[in-house]
Amino acid sequence: MGVIQKQTIKGSIFSYLGVVIGFITTGLLFPKYFSVEENGLIKLLVSYSIIFAQFASLGFNRVITMLFTYFRDFKNKHNGFLFITAIVILIGFVLAIIVFLLLKTYILGKGTEKSLLFADYFYYIIPLIFVTLLFTVLDNYNKVLFNAVRGIFLKEFFQRIIILLDVILFYFGFVNFQLFVIIYIIAFSLPPLIIMVLLIKEGNFNLRPQINFITKDLRSKMINISIFGVLTSFSGILILNIDTVMINSMLGIGQTGVYAITFFFGSIILIPSRSLIKISSVVIADAWKGNNLKIINDIYYKSCLNQLIFASLLFVGIWANINNVFEILPTEYATGKYVIFFIALSSLIKMAGGVNNMILFTSKYYKIHTLFILIFVVVIVISNLIFIPMYGIVGAALASALSNFIFMLIEFIFLKVKFKFQPYNYKFLLVLAISGFAYLISYFVPIFNNYIIDIIVRSLLITIIFVGLILIFKLSEDIDLKAKQIINLIKK
What we know:
The chain is mainly alpha-helical. It has 21 helices and no strands.
C-alpha cells in the first residue's frame, strides 16, 4: 500500500489545491461574469469532447492498464508499446471526427432553438476532442509508469490556473467571450504537451515499432480487451456526461448552465478518489497477474473505508453550508439546491464503493464488467427520461444517485460471490453515525449574519467533531498513522 498511499496523498493535495482554484473560477467567477447560457456552453463543449475522445481511444486505455505490465522494459523502450498506442488513437481520432460530423444534425437538433449559442461554437469541439484524447492516453501511460501524480497536477491544478487567468483577462476586457473559449481550449492543450515533453526527457517516449515482440496470444488479448474496452470506456464516459446532453436537449442551454455550476459543488466529494483510482489500478493489475487476492482485498477494504470517511465529512460540510452556497451564487442558480444534494449523495455512494470498479475492470471478468456498465447506461438514460420531465435538473441529479447505487450494489454482489470480497463491517456504520451526529450539532449552531464567518465556524465545528470521533474510535489505521505523524511533527 506504500506506493498507493504516497501517490494518493500527493495527488489529493494537488486535487484539493485545484478545487480551491476551481471554486474561485467555477463557483464564484463563472456564475458572476458569464450568463447561464455561456456556462452551459462551456459544460457542453467539455462533455462532448470527453465523450468522443473516449470513443476515439478505441478501448486502448484499458489495454494500457491491463497489459502494459507485459511490455514494461525501460532498456528496450517498453517493446514498442507507445508506437502501437499512437497508431490506434490516430485511427480512432479520424473515426471519431467522422462520426461527430455525421451526428451534427442530431447533436444540435432538439436543442437548436433553445441552444443557438452551442450551434455557433459547435466546431470548437474538434480540437478539444484531440487534446482530451491525447491527455487521456498519455496520462494513462504515465500512470502505468507509476507516476499518477503528474497528470493530476497538470489537469487538476495547472490547467485550472490557466483557466483562472483566462477569466481574469475576460473580466478586465482584454478578451471577448470567443477569445476566452479559444484560450480555454489552449488550457486543455497544455497538460498533454507537457506530459509528452517530460516523457521524452525521461526516455519513456519512443515511437520505434517492435511488432515482433507481440506474440499471437498477446495480440489476441490486446484485441479482445480493446473491443470490450470501447464499450466499457465509452459507456463509462457517457454515464458521466449524459445528464448534461439530455438536459440541454430537453430543457435548453440555460438550465444546462445552472446544472453545470451546481453540479460542481456536489462533485467536490469525489476529489480524493481520483489519485487513488489511478495508482491503485496499476497495483491491482499487477496483483491479478500474480493472482494475489490478499493484496486486492486489502486495497478494496481500505479504499472503501477511507473514502467513505473523507466523503462523509465533505458531504456533511457541504449540506450544512448549503444556504451559504446560495449566498455565493446568483439567484438564478437557486433551482439547483437539490442538484447539489443528489450529486453529493451520488458521489458519496461512489466513494463508499472504493476501488470495486477497478478490481473488476482489471480482472479476467472484464467482460462481465462491460455488461454491468451497459446496464448502468440503460438505467441512467431511462431514469433521466423519467425524472427530468418530472423534476427538471434536480431529476437528472436524482437519476445519477439512483443509478450509481444500483451499479455499486451489482458490483459489490458480484465481488462477494466470485471472490468472497466483503469490505464492509461495523466501522462503516460508525462513520455514518458520526456523520449524522456532526451534522445534527451544526444544525443547532446559530446562523451568523456574515456567510463567510458562518462557513468558517460551521465547517470547523463539523471537522473537529467528525475527525475527533474518527480518531477516538480508531476507525482507520491509515488515518491514525497520519495523525500520529502530524502530532510528532508538531512536537518537534
